[in-house]
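#help-structures
NK: newbie question, is this the right format to request a structure? protein is DNA polymerase I
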Amino acid sequence: MSLKSLTEAKNNTILVIDGNSLIHRAFHAIPLLSTADGLPTNAVYGFTNMLLKILNDIQPKWVTVAFDKSKTTFRNQEYSEYKAHRKATPEELRPQFSLVKDVLNALSIKWLEAEGYEADDLIGTIVKKAEEEDADVVILSGDKDILQLVSDKTRAILTKKGITEIEEYNAENVYRKFGVHPNQITDYKGLTGDPSDNIPGVPGIGPKTATKLLQDFDSVENILANLDKITSRARTLMENNSEQALLSKRLATIITNVPVQITLEQCIRTEPNEAELFNILKKLEFKKLLRDMLTAETGNSNQIKQKHLINKQSYAVEYITLSEQEDFEDLLVQAQKSGKVALALQGRREKGLISVALCLSEGQNYLLPLNSSTETTSFALKLLQNICVDSKIKKCCYDTKADLWLLHYYGIEINQPGFDVMLADYLLNPGKSARSLPETALSHLDIVLQEGSETYLPASAEVISRLVDILQSKLLLQEQENLYYDIELPLLKVLASMERTGVSVDKEQLQLMSEELNKKLQVLTTDIYEHAGEIFNINSTKQLGSILFEKLKLKAGKKTKTGYSTDVTVLEELAGDHPVVSLLLEYRQLAKLKSTYVDGLTGLINPQTGKLHTTFHQAVTATGRLSSSEPNLQNVPIRLDAGRKIRKFFVPCKPDNFIFSADYSQIELRILAHIAQDNNLMDAFAKKQDIHTRTASEVFGVAMDEVTPEMRGRAKAVNFGIVYGISDFGLAKDIKVTRKEAGRYINNYFNRYSGVKAYIDRVIREAREKGYVTTILNRRRYLPDLFSSNRVVRSFGERTAMNTPIQGSASDIIKLAMVLIYREMRKRKLSSTMILQVHDELIFDVVASEVEEMQNLVKYYMENAVELSVPLVVDMKIGPNWYDVQKI
């Protein structure tokens, strides 16, 4: 939505919004959101989105928003119990009311509140004035009370579920829904009451009786005047509660003459205050809204008007386009004197560079076009080569790993990355959902980069240059410079090398497996049809739900908008009720295996190299773990035997090579022992005991040689469950025991491992004090969920506080090990390559003559990456493929 569209009016309509109702709806509909410094924003976000949508849909001439000013109104004075049962406003919601008003002010939208009156009364007053001036009225609210204002000139839009589902009412719809006319809504509530507002009504009179009475007698007063004409039961109820019925009607009646000075002219839509709007949306960190609303008039949603900067000035840079040989040579000399170059590259991985921008310092910007003459391109590439290999020049980029791919097209390598803006921003703000240079510039420099503009590339280079000092200072302040310079920055070259090297796959075997799975799916399909008694679309949730719950009469699961839920949790609960269910579960598992992994991997094999070249994402997860895509090799399934067999097709690049796997043994439990300083855990690891057998011995009170496989299995579930903050309910479900028994296991665990219990209590307490938790190597994760009034959300925050220092530390350790191993392999000029990282496991393609050297090298650096209170242990395996590796 552009700024211009916010003031477009296509009809003689006033939109009147119930601010309090919509804010509450948004707050409860949208999960808790907060800014980097902990300011809650979910209600503001939902309200703003709903407001913009309704403005776009209705395009009214006038608009206003009404709010409650205080809880005490004339209704409380008449009836002290009115709304007395309402819970206190959640702490996370309180500050969002003023933020919503800030948004409205920036949008130049009139808002109202009046002491002693509710928002409904202000709405009623505005509606009356608007109708008197022959305007059409649309009311937006989540409160059915508002329906009493519906008329020939006024319609109401009510939010139903959350803020996305709405229901529109005119006078006819009101009657069809409730059996009474809009002007009888107050009488209806006078009879039935309204529990949400604590309006008592007449005890014993329900909706059906109330509707019948009002259809016959129009109003509460007329019913009381005709008691001799109604049933004896209703007569008795009305006689005993006549005053209460009239009181309830008064409480439900919206006032239409609140003494406020308001005219339609004051509500007319005017242009937003662009500077204020920019400021508030930036403060709230609503990046997408900011881009959408500050869109250039071209209609390109990626082009942000530079004039909407806080200082109302475009961020533009002057730059020199180089063309002559001496210009390129002079620039190299200047770069060597400067000792720092910021690079912004434009191009495509498979087609190379289009142009390059360099910035030596603010105001010193240069553009190197690479699509002009052959001679100029040659000069530019030579300059790039000289800069990239010069160890005395600090190379600064936004996403260095992506830039390395572009440079690699020409055989150019950055010998040593100097600074990566994206990675620095990632450490400082790990919870961001999306990352880009314009977003980072907005966050740290208060400027907007105009993507697609003529100056975008040189402007980007200068922004990168400016961000370096700012982000370095922030890393230093948060004591994260070691994490950045020792792990994250050097790791990007390791990942770039792994991406380029790729993973060899046996394509023929993959195709054979695809055919085999296809045959199994055909057999399963026939069996499913036979048990169902008819042919249907197994992949259609609607048709499957009809078969299971209507034809076969199985116990229905969750109902969705489109029908019955048939997700895996529903099917697993029904597995013992009918043989078709287990067939369906197997069908789904094999179908996903075939489409996602077997056929999916086949389609991603590079035709030139015959390998898979995944992309590693270093700045995505909040825990610090790596992720990957196209394909996601972190997620190759191992639960099913058929899934594990996919690993068989990951082979060495040469027939004589081997696949070598090095996997940290129980690293998260070892980190827990170190962080918690629990004597029993540390003792078990120091003695090289089987940790699950030791835990079973402690929890079940038996000697280690008396621990049964079942005991060990349950202890294993407890060990790993504790790391993830498992509850008695979750553990009971996992190991199939009663909740009481699971609770006993957990209590026994904490009694024997008291240091772990003390750690959990401590880390949650400190997280609440600081707002974040840290790993061993000082990676941070901010936890706004800890401060939620919602118990479920708060509990999730507590579990995250418990687990992040453990899982995040494991991620940091293996990253550091990767850097150390890669560095040593290059130093020794080994031909073997690191090809994959899957959580706690590293995979190598090893030359036969280097097997022993690689084993010793990898074991040493993985086990000595950091020093803990307990030893780090690596399990090593080797074989002809990833599936058939054998323990060394």
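mod (FA): yep, format's fine, and the tokens are attached above. Confidence is low (pLDDT under 50) at residues 295-314.
NK: thank you!
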